[in-house]
Design goal:
About 55% of the residues lie in helices and about 20% in strands. The chain is an alpha+beta fold and about 475 residues long.
């Protein structure tokens, strides 16, 4: 059984009853002798009194002197003065002196012990008070009235600060009134559990306090009286809100790392596939170079050119995403007219779309839009979006590129580039992660997942932003790029 038992004081010596009787009777008889038979103390009495006072203090010396006066007077007036009588006087005195000395020493020791206990108790009280008030834990002392009723006796500053309970409110010791019925009924079950077990218990709990939602690790420790009954409960509640948040953050970080690791594994598999196909096609075309027919030679050259271009694009994307991650890309900005630049991109991709049977349309802005940008990187942004639309739009579909100006931008106007297609669309669970590296844009496709990550990174290098919208699979998708402009 774990708990706290009230500390008992150290036992003190008690004065021997015989010593008390000797002292009291000696004082009484000495007073009577002074009244009826006064005399002068002899040399022996003086020596004995001085010795007694030196050994046992002033009280012992005075008491022994009074006894010596009485005995000397009595023997002098009523008995013959002999050496035997003097010896008897000394023996009686020694017996009485021992009793007086023991009484004086015991009283002195008790007084010193009491003073020492008082000092230690005061020092401990200061230490406990300092710990109680200085700790960051919420600490409070409860008095157990009965099984269903508890009274708040004391609480520290941390408790008052966290709960918002003032000193004036704390004058009402009723715990239910102080904390409210809902919180009280919740924590009362824990207090009752501590009573039933008669042992310390620890648990975690959540409360909504004035400072917001807080998590606590609470420990309840019972205090027992001499009858081994729980009379009080000491409660300490440690605020672990930050630890819980850190724990949640670590769990999220672990999950994110797990997802990134899975994406990288998928990426490596897809990369191997993407590299193998062009290389296999090139290898198959190489024997045709030995042919003397011009038609076969042209076909082989076209195959090699097309596949090496694809390999070059893959390598360029890998290098670009790596350089961006390492902050090694430096934009070569210059004044650029957006309608003209986008039109160039459209024309470069038009034949590719025509071969697949996908309509490619362009709606330029009604006026020129100028901005400070790196034309090559901006070309790459729009090119990647067009390549994405081409990849996921079936024959007979369309892709539309439009440019507008939005004058409501905080730092002036902004150019809006919209690429809309009628392709397979994007599943809703992929939208929040669409622009992350190694993320495939469609739930069932096998794409490297680098193109859209490059779009986001290059757009942000131009102090812009990009968004993706889709109503779901089979309903197409829309990508919107925002860029600051003049």
């Amino acid at each position: 059984m774990y708990g706290v038992v009230m500390e008992r004081p150290k036992p003190r010596k008690t004065v021997d009853e015989v010593s008390v009787l000797i002292v009291l009777s000696g004082l009484f008889v000495a007073a009577v002798s002074f009244i009826f038979s006064p005399s002068v103390i002899g040399p022996l009495g003086i020596i004995v009194v001085v010795a007694s006072a030196f050994k046992w203090g002033l009280t012992g010396g005075v008491a022994s002197a009074l006894w010596f006066v009485f005995i000397t007077n009595y023997i002098y007036f009523t008995l013959e003065m002999t050496y035997g009588n003097y010896l008897a006087i000394i023996i009686v005195y020694v017996i009485i002196g021992i009793g007086l000395g023991k009484a004086v020493e015991t009283l002195k020791e008790n007084r010193e012990q009491l003073e020492q206990d008082t000092r230690e108790l005061k020092e401990k009280s200061i230490e406990y008070q300092t710990i109680f008030e200085g700790t960051q834990c919420l600490m409070f002392l409860l008095e157990v009235m009965d099984y269903d009723s508890f009274r708040l006796l004391r609480s520290n500053q941390a408790f008052k600060k966290a709960t918002g309970i003032s000193e004036e409110q704390l004058k009402d010791k009723n715990l239910q009134k102080l904390l409210g019925k809902e919180i009280y009924n919740k924590i009362k079950q824990r207090y009752q559990e501590c009573l039933q077990l008669s042992a310390s218990i620890s648990y975690e709990e959540t409360h909504f306090l004035p400072a917001g939602k807080k998590n606590f690790h609470t420990t309840l420790t019972p205090i027992f009286n001499k009858q081994n009954k729980v009379t009080h409960i000491v409660a300490s509640a440690l605020d672990i809100t930050y630890l819980k948040q850190t724990e949640d953050d670590l769990a999220r970080a672990y999950e994110e790392l797990r997802i990134v690791d899975r994406r990288k594994s998928e990426f490596l598999g897809i990369l191997a596939h993407e590299l193998r196909n062009p290389l296999a096609t090139i290898i198959m075309a190489l024997p045709q170079l030995d042919s003397s027919e011009e038609k076969q030679l042209k076909k082989a050259r076209d195959i090699i050119y097309r596949q090496t271009s694809q390999l070059s694009r893959l390598v360029e994307e890998l290098l670009a995403i790596t350089r961006i991650a390492q902050n090694k890309i430096v934009l070569q900005k210059k004044k650029t007219e957006l309608n003209h630049l986008i039109n160039q991109v459209i024309e470069d991709y038009r034949s590719k779309f025509q071969e697949k049977g996908v309509a490619l349309m362009f709606k330029p802005a009604p006026e020129d839009i100028h901005l400070e940008a790196d034309p090559e990187r901006l070309f790459q942004v729009v090119g990647n979006l067009l390549n994405n639309a081409y990849k996921y739009t079936e024959k007979g579909g369309y892709t539309e590129v439009s440019i507008t100006r939005d004058p409501g931008y905080q730092q002036g106007s902004k150019a809006v580039i919209q690429v809309k297609d009628s392709g397979v669309g994007i599943c809703s669970e992929m939208l929040p992660e669409l622009f992350e590296p190694f993320t495939q844009g469609n739930c069932s496709n096998s794409d490297l997942g680098l193109g859209l990550a490059l779009v986001k990174a290059l757009t942000e290098l131009h102090h812009g932003s990009v968004e993706a919208h889709s109503e779901g699979q089979g309903k197409g998708s829309t990508f919107i790029v925002y860029l600051p402009c003049e």
